[in-house]
Amino acid sequence: MKTKKVLLFFMVLALFCGCGNGRSGEKGIEFDRSSYERADFQAISIQEGIEAFALNEDGMIFCSGADAKLYVYAKDGGDKEEIPSSSFYGNICVDGKNVYAYDYDQSAIVQLTDNGEVSSESVRVVQNSISLHTIRNMVATNGKIYVLAIPFTADNTETLFMFGAQEFEDYGEQVYCIDAQSGEHSILDLEHITAEYRSEDGRLFFYGWQEDKYYLYEYDTEKEKVSQKLNFADMGNLLNIVVEGGYLFGISSSDGLISIDLTTGEKLTWASGVYAMFGNDLQFYQGNLFVRNMAESQKILQVLAVDKEGKIAETVRDSNVVVADGTDGDGHNTGETGHDGQEVSGNDTAPQPTKRPKRNETIGVSAGGNLQFNPDRIRYFSGMKTKVIQQSLDQDAVIAELMAGNPDVDIYLLPHGWALTQRLKELGIYVPLNGSETISGYMGKCFGYIQDAATNENGDIWMIPIYESCQMTWYIPENIQKFDITPEDLTSLDSYIAVLERLHDKMGEYHYYNNADIFWLECDSRYEVNYNNYETGEVRFDTELYRGLADFFWSGWERYGSAYANHPLFFMALQQTRDSVTTLGETPDFDRDSVIFKTISISEHLISTAKVGSNKFRKLLEGWRVLPFPNLQSDSEQAVIKMMYAMVNPYSRQQEAAIEYLEVMLENQADVVEWPAFFREDMAYYEQYYDVSVPAFQDLYGIFRNADVYYGHSWDTSTDYIVEYQQGLISLDEAIERRQRHAVMGLEE
User: Fold this and answer.
1) Residue 117: partners with Cβ closer than 8 Å, 6 or more residues away
2) Does the predicted model carry a pTM greater than 0.70?
3) pLDDT at 739 exceeding the cut of 50
């Protein structure tokens, strides 16, 4: 059962859910924002690998470890007490001084305490006759234990349930009410429940779905029925909940940790990298919200603090320390401020938030697919809300909309690789940004090619860079030496492929990772940047170099055959993980013991569960070295940067606010965008995010310093000619001719 619990998390991360806004008119639930005592925690070091935890009324933290031991921590930071046990506890809950848990080894609900005392002799079986498959939550109040669980049936013995799906899915969950003394139980008349919570004032809440809506229910434990319920349009599929301080806190499979103000219905996303999919993994104690974060090696983190006035301060931890005293666990004051200026704790290397007057505009941002930045963080720093407007991926449609002047869009977020980019610059369909000292100052410190891309011939700064990606080869020096590989062997395409051919028969002794499809697209882009000149019209794909590339990459494999299709000499991490379980950011391609090299993007390595600038983020560079993507032919070739940028619509009705929106993004780039970026030339800028003395950082800086931005030139981005060639419908010459035709069309548009 423990294995199933771990497995479920990894089936969740790619699933998404959405939320709206507004009260639905259901009967309300009254809340007193000052109904709890406020307590601060001293620094408490909690080990990794915690399987379950709970806090009692005295602030004692009970933790179940993967090592089948029970640990008890005091909130004053004292030494932990270790309680030997031969069992594995998957859920822990508290009622006063009584601590209960589900013992997976005995398949029983047990009481761990005797009048508040904890010892291996005090464990008492409460109930062991109910046959449960998976427990979602377990809470206790007034001498009753409420277990939200999926019962064992003949059909689900080996089933893995995908909690966190986009919408509610009924897995037959039931709520069992168990008398803590006698063990007698009943099943409550509740359906479609996804989470439950007992508040600090003893109230019992359930969260569930009914008639296409999500509801928060308050349950009357004496009358054994729902007494009140509440619905807001922005309630989504929440997997863990806390109801305190007038807020519903919850874990969304797509947004991470969110809050909903139960008076206004306002929703905010607080920590996108926090996941607590089921179990009592989101808990509250006297103004402090804690999570056992499955995306952070199952650490317990203090994520939010709520004051008496109902203000929320963000305190996301990057270490394995639980604190709420304004320090980072080592006594260093962080000095950051949260919503409405409330002081919060955080990483002491993070940049200071910009002090600027709050605004209240709602900025319309047109973007296709992933927004690439966190709009809630923009609101946190500026007060401005974001309305996301879904953008067409048809470039002709986008430019038609721009020329028609859609006033509902204030900012366009576009890939620099679109042919549309050049047309916008030429036609001047943008708001010049030179008047902003923040933007001008930022751009003046960027690499020259970034400045050139952002500046029109007439001197206008017409856009700002948001996010970049660059393919490169990461390697472990001592590992490549074992196979007699030198860094020089990986710097040119011919020698790189020769290494793949030499290693191909030694599979199992090592790992290397590269995706042939992405690798080919990078080769094509690199050829465009280094061997075509669109300004002079010298564009040729019928060359010996390009023909050799196409012949190698287009032959011998079905490019779109399946998710696992890959060239015989290439090897994706996906191929290694399809039959196993890995932790986000800890896939086999991060294993320093076996990986010799991998050619992937900077973000694939640096974006895991670690926040930019955190200690864990910095460690992702330790032990690695980085090489540019292999040269196709010449040592003088430039690396290719794929970039996303933002520009202000000249037809926007609130251009001033839109420009300030972009200023906030630049001033707080790592916190808002949350993707690593190497736009800046000034080395000192990176010291707050990286250990700049690490060789891998020096490698990365050198790659981006000597790169160039990829400009798209073809309106027709179809690559059907590759598939048709692979299917034998056209010859290699005809396929290359089609590629040439696309490029020429771009010149003539």
Assistant:
1) none
2) no
3) yes
